[in-house]
């Protein structure tokens, strides 16, 4: 692996997301020794405001500023690519990326691109996301651009899902898995052929959800795999790096 490449994880949204992403990066790396692994810096910043509440209160301005400050701290540590393990934060992806010296991996675009290539066009994709991301229509727009059909939960299941997401953050696990399964069942009943776990709190339950009758896809796992592949690609073409479905030129 190219030791000059360094991943910067903007963590803390929720508390386990950055930690899980780093583990998934390790798992995805074809390493035989310690020295074969990638350089990763994870900054867990619990002071980043709640993304859904910020989107409602000020259009996301407060969380954008906090994420950009965290990104700048990571850039000073020499990272060459950033990743935000929070789907909701991607509702303001362009504003966060604007003016930063290094590219941010676009987890939403990468996940939709992955689904489109894996399943083909017109796939009906159920999405489980926060209220903030649902209202921003970030995944709905991206899916439609790839000729995929988004399916969202009913208000009843969305409310229960959102409550479960906050319960995960509080460490209250009781009935959370069942609520996620109920939301998936509703999406499947409404025609979903694949379900996307569009919140990194839900990524914690990915393994337990593999028994569901329809495929479950996790953006956090897509990000880990593609980051590893991107850095391998950058060894062959040092000025280029795949960044969430597009190619970025590194200075």
UniProtKB/TrEMBL annotation:
Query: Can you tell me which residues the record assigns to a coiled coil?
Result: none
Which PROSITE patterns does this entry report, sorted A to Z?
ASP_GLU_RACEMASE_1
Q: Which Pfam families match?
A: Asp_Glu_race
Q: Which UniProt keywords apply?
A: Isomerase
Q: What Gene Ontology terms describe what this protein does at the molecular function level?
A: amino-acid racemase activity
Family of this protein: Belongs to the aspartate/glutamate racemases family.
Name under which the protein is recorded: Aspartate racemase
Q: Which organism is it from?
A: Candidatus Sungbacteria bacterium RIFCSPHIGHO2_02_FULL_47_11
């Amino acid at each position: 692996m190219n030791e000059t490449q360094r991943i910067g994880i903007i963590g803390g949204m929720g508390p386990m997301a950055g930690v899980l992403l780093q583990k998934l990066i390790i798992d995805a790396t074809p390493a035989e020794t310690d020295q074969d692994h990638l350089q990763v810096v994870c900054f867990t910043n619990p002071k980043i405001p709640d993304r859904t509440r910020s989107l409602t209160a000020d259009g996301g301005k407060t969380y954008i500023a906090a994420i950009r400050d965290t990104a700048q701290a990571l850039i000073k540590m020499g990272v060459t690519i950033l990743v935000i393990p929070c789907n909701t934060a991607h509702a303001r992806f362009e504003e966060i990326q604007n003016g930063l010296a290094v590219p941010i991996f676009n987890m939403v675009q990468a996940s939709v691109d992955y689904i489109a290539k894996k399943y083909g066009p017109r796939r009906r994709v159920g999405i489980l996301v926060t209220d903030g991301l649902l209202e921003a229509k970030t995944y709905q727009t991206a899916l439609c651009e790839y000729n995929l059909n988004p399916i969202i939960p009913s208000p009843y299941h969305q409310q229960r899902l959102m409550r479960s997401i906050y319960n995960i953050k509080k460490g209250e696990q009781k009935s959370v898995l069942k609520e996620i399964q109920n939301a998936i069942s509703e999406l499947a009943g409404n025609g979903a052929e694949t379900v996307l776990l569009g919140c990194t709190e839900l990524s914690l339950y990915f393994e337990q959800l593999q028994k569901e009758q329809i495929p479950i896809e996790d953006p956090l796992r897509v990000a880990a795999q593609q980051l590893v592949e991107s850095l391998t690609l950058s060894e062959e073409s040092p000025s280029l790096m795949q960044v969430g479905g597009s190619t970025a030129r590194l200075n």
